[in-house]
Write a structure and sequence with these properties.
Length: 180
Amino acid sequence: MKIDIDRDIENKASNSYNLDNKLYSIPHFITNAFIELQQRTPQAGIFKITQSFNQQELNRQIDLHFYVDPAPLETDQICSLIKYFYRKLTVPLLPKHVCKQLREHAQNPMLMKTDLVFLKPSYFENLVFLLKKLNGIAKVPEYRMDAKNLGVCFAPNLFEDFAFGDEKILQQLIVLVENM
């Protein structure tokens, strides 16, 4: 099953999240998962590929649109579910037309920012939310996950037509988000 961010927002399965004095509609699971991660002691290699024994059951709950409470989960389970959530979107956060523009403008950060304007508002909000959270993780040395590593971990889940080199574009976006 695929996940539709717009449907979740319409069905009130989202939180109004204040980010830089702007209200964003972000799915409950995603906001609560990042809140839970922030409350925990930083763990080296966060978001690296890991699978726990009950990860398939947790993935199934996401597929069935059940709310998964991140509080009792291990950090690696939360991280795996966050990546899984973005991988299961009906339309990835970075659809083909935006991917094409980002690739063309990879050498010009200002144009890359304007490319994001072509996203649907709900996708723009969710992408900015995710990028800001990843930027925050990249700044914490204890995580040992800089923007480059996070780009490698998340690019396949966010780009509709992922191609070699897209992780570098995502790395740039993670850094650029500070000025959005």
